Amino acid sequence: MTIEVGQKIPAATLSECVDFSASSGCPVNPQPQNVQSLTEGKTIVLFGVPGAFTPLCSEEHLPGFIRLADEIKAAGADEIWCMAVNDAFVMGAWGRQVNNEGKVRMMADGSAELTKAMGLDRDLTAGGMGVRCYRFACILKDGVVTYIGVEGSGEFGKSKAETILDELKKS
Q1: What residue ranges define each of the domains in the chain, with the CATH number in brackets?
Q2: Which pTM does this prediction carry?
């Protein structure tokens, strides 16, 4: 069952790489991040993508949140998280490749722990991608979902940065 407005985000651990090797520029030192403790007392925008470096995700979804990060934070978000069922090294490299510059936390859900707990997992093994998450975005206030928009295949509207900005301005 998909998580709904009014429900608390499930307990889970994501991973994040924020350090990079001086010699290779590759992400290093992934750190576990406890979702429940990181959302306590904060407003978090969490958006999920089917995969790092995929076309729509790299050309529109993540760049939209980077571009509007200051406005989204001015409208009440403490942090913005991008999540994908990829490892922390991939997420760190992807953030660096799109010039994220720390505006969006690049959170890896490598084993789809949070994705499955939220009911947002998709089996894309027939296409060679394994288990991934649906494209979605949600607003969490003190760990409780106040907005969630889950996209169907080929859709991109409910999870856009502009939509989230509008939702934050309403509350």
Answers
A1: 13-170 (3.40.30.10)
A2: 0.97
